[in-house]
Design goal:
- With about 200 residues, the protein is an all-alpha fold.
- The chain is about 60% helix and about 0% strand.
- The chain has 8 helices and 2 strands; from the N terminus they run βααααααβαα.
- It has a two-stranded antiparallel ribbon.
- α2 packs antiparallel against α6 (about 130-150).
- The radius of gyration is 18 Å and the shape is elongated.
Length: about 200
């Protein structure tokens, strides 16, 4: 079963024509939102190592270890779902689809963190990630509104129940959530930078 949380509820009637990507990336408001989103994503990525170090006691659980792929089965048993795949906007992957995937992935990690944080003995820095993720969801939804050309209604994220019978499972769940959030955030940075590349990036 694939975990997915709707990013918004759209009205039935479209209030404005859907703008093309080329028009959006030249819109100063859209560019500003992309830049804010990129800054928030970078802030989250910079906070993850400290959050991991402070909450994960086992030395066997390292944030950037190649061994992390071996935990796929226990991740399924705990109830940790994979994040949506992100890739650059193209003819086969629309801007709207890209933004939807970003929103769904962020809300997935929101739900995972909210489920596991109360069980951590030292989860303050993990909990501190949540406001930035919430703010980033808001920015992504602003871009979705511009793409759709219609009003959006923010839903309440669906709570997630993880199978955490003991401290070992709690540690694994927190570890794998942070590992996956880091990977998803890195993909988001690449995609966001590709949306409105600046002159220096274009020339490099």
């Amino acid at each position: 079963m694939i975990f997915a949380i709707p990013c918004y509820m759209a009205s039935l009637a479209r209030s404005a024509p859907v703008p093309q990507r080329s028009a959006l990336v030249e819109d100063p408001e859209f560019v500003d939102i992309v830049q804010i989103s990129n800054s928030l994503t970078t802030k989250i990525l910079m906070s993850i190592p400290d959050a991991h170090d402070s909450s994960i006691r086992s030395k066997a659980l390292q944030l950037n270890s190649p061994e992390n792929s071996k935990f796929e089965q226990i991740a399924l048993e705990i109830g940790i779902h994979s994040a949506p795949q992100l890739r650059a906007v193209s003819e086969s992957f629309s801007l709207e689809a890209c933004l939807r995937s970003m929103c769904e992935g962020l809300q997935l990690h929101q739900a995972l963190l909210k489920s596991v944080t109360p069980r951590l003995q030292n989860g303050d820095k993990v909990k501190d990630l949540l406001p930035d993720i919430r703010d980033l969801v808001i920015q992504i939804n602003k871009m979705l509104k511009m793409v759709q050309g219609e009003a959006l209604v923010q839903p309440t994220p669906t709570p997630m129940t993880l199978n955490l019978p003991g401290d070992y499972e709690v540690q694994i769940a927190a570890h794998l959530t942070l590992v996956q959030l880091q990977s998803f955030g890195q993909d988001m940075v690449r995609v966001l930078r590709n949306l409105v590349p600046n002159d220096e990036e274009t020339q490099s």
